[in-house]
Write a structure and sequence with these properties.
12 helices, Glutaredoxin, 3 domains, alpha+beta
């Protein structure tokens, strides 16, 4: 299961929140602290320390009024335009006019710098060009350099896509990566037990157990298995670089996960992503078990979906309720708009992303993507586009959820 359960959509953090009594629509009361206002839900911190999401619609009117008051107060201090308006702190320029890359290759030396090595505190910090790796064990520069190539290549892939993926809030110019020697420590820190890595949007960090990177203990040190590959990590690194406006209603789910799947499914080897020839791998991944027979969504070549608007506008919780169908279909839809729609130049998806950046969301943003078409007409275009590649879509099927 992907990490994105932990993504926070257009959220406001609430500093120094106080514990108060919350009442739901059934008059049940809970003592909790308001941690974040996250679109149509709040994140509440219970007395036992757990942070749980709660839909606003299920709270009492008094609680909803309290949340809206807090939201209004927080919004007063938010910039009204630019990436900072959504919590971004990036000076990277928008690149919507750049060509779609055919191959991404990171050939530079990652130039690993050792920042801290404190055995008593079990804190070891290393840096490459764009990342800061905070680990609980000492690693050699050679090992860090080995896996840093994948991080930097993925960063370059996201930066070179003409989708203006200039998100994230790097601390002192570096995106934060937390590395754990033991899987149980990763889980204790909040990593989902069945995951190989997780992006925590509220903290702008990616957490990874070392085993997911192919790093394993040997004697008194550690070595890197360079043949170890993991598509989960590029997926999570993409989330870290995706601008917050792209998580608005109408985009959250099908596009944000479809984009991350697109990056993760593109063939990668030794610092190089083969973008030009990724269509076969994408199709095999969605319809079967992938080119190497591992993973994959195994949806078959006949995919049944709800009506397109319903799929694009569904809540993220509902999107996650059927992850195989949702992630696989999101990947195919995103790929359609990247390479098949219109003139194959991604013009409509770029206009859609610009609309999200301008503050549009939901139907207003999707109208830009439709570009004068009805949803029925777009369904026919998508069906026709993928049929030529061996995938049959059926929208509005009674069996689709």
């Amino acid at each position: 299961m992907r990490c994105s359960l932990l993504l926070f959509l257009a959220c406001f953090s609430v500093a120094n929140g106080e514990i108060r009594s919350w009442t739901d629509s059934l008059n049940r009361k809970t003592e909790a602290e308001l941690v974040k206002i996250d679109g149509a839900k709040v994140i509440l911190k219970l007395k036992d320390g757990r942070e749980v999401p709660f839909p606003l619609e299920k709270l009492s009117q008094a609680d909803r009024d309290f949340v809206e008051t807090q939201r209004a107060e927080l919004a007063k201090n938010m910039p009204t335009d630019g990436p900072e308006a959504s919590g971004e702190k990036s000076n990277k320029p928008l690149n919507f006019d750049a060509p779609w890359p055919e191959r991404i290759t990171f050939t530079e030396d990652p130039e690993i710098n050792t920042i801290v090595e404190d055995a008593a505190e079990k804190q070891f910090i290393y840096e490459s060009a764009n990342y800061r790796y905070v680990c609980d064990v000492r690693l050699s520069k050679m090992v860090v350099k080995g896996f840093a190539v994948m991080f930097e290549a993925t960063n370059k892939f996201c930066a070179d896509l003409p989708l203006s993926l200039n998100g994230g809030s790097p601390a002192k110019g570096k995106h934060q990566i937390l590395l754990f020697e033991k899987k149980e420590d990763y889980i204790k820190a909040g990593g989902p037990p069945a995951s190989a890595g997780v992006y925590i949007g509220g903290k702008e960090i990616v957490m990874v157990p070392l085993e997911s990177l192919g790093v394993r203990p040997v004697g008194s040190g550690y070595m890197l298995d360079r043949e170890k590959s993991n598509s989960t990590l590029p997926h999570e690194l993409t989330h870290q670089l995706t601008p917050r406006p792209y998580y608005r209603e109408g985009s959250m789910g099908w596009f944000t996960e479809g984009l991350a799947e697109y990056i993760a499914t593109t063939p990668y080897r030794a610092g190089s992503y083969n973008v030009r020839n990724n269509m076969r791998d994408i199709t095999q991944y969605v319809t079967g078990y992938g080119e190497d027979g591992k993973g994959g969504r195994a949806l078959g070549t006949e995919i049944k979906l709800p009506k397109l608007r319903s799929f694009m506008m569904q809540s993220y919780e509902r999107f996650l309720s059927n992850p195989q169908l949702s992630y696989g279909s999101g990947l195919l839809l995103a790929t359609y708009f990247f390479h098949i729609d219109g003139n194959g130049d991604g013009a409509r998806i770029k206009a859609f992303l610009k609309a999200l950046r301008s503050g549009k969301e939901g139907d207003e943003a999707l109208a830009v993507l439709l570009d004068g078409r009805t949803f029925d007409e777009l369904e026919k275009d998508i069906t026709k586009g993928w049929k030529s590649k061996g995938v049959q879509f059926t929208f509005g099927s009674p069996g689709a959820k």
